[in-house]
Amino acid sequence: HPPATLPDTTRYNGNVQDWNPRGFGFVVLEDVRRAYVHHSSVRKSGGEKVDLQNGQSVSVCLQEDLQNPGKLAAVDVVILSERISGVVQDWKPRPQGFGFVTLPDGSRAYVHISCLRHGEKELRVGERVSFCVSQDAQNS
């Protein structure tokens, strides 16, 4: 067996995608590469299992996935954003497919239909939703 390579200590930012409640999924990095992530790779206190959420921002180190040579695995995963809840304030159905959610502090966040979970087609005004907030690169 060749020696296991130590993870690259360079940190990469990305978002959780395709998270399975059994404790695994993927991180899509800013450069669009995908890396497998297992809940045991998430930094936590007290040893409890951490469930990541789709859309959650994370910082990771990378190594080769030992179960799938040639693929990437995320290790030393640090959660950068927590999910928060809010209320849909305004929603323009398709073909527009966008609206605004009121955050707990009273501010508003833009939401586009492309950010909804698979299977979710539309939001409804007054609906309580859970989400991660990120800076809008076009409007910063």
Could you walk me through the main structural features you see in this protein, from its secondary elements to its overall organization?
The chain has about 140 residues and is an all-beta fold. Helix content is about 0%, strand content about 45%. It contains no helices and nine strands. The chain has strands at about 10-20, 25-30, 35-40, 55-65, 70-80, 85-90, 100, 110, 130. Strands 1-2-3-5-4 form a five-stranded mixed beta barrel. The chain has a four-stranded antiparallel sheet with strand order 8-7-6-9, with no helix packed on it.
Distance between the termini: 49 Å
Choose one word for the global shape. elongated
- The low-pLDDT segments are none
Biggest pleated-sheet summary: 5 strands, mixed, barrel
Q: Helices and strands, in N-to-C order?
A: EEEEEEEEE
E-strand count = 9
Output the number of helix runs.
Answer: 0
Could you report the average pLDDT, rounded to the nearest whole number?
83
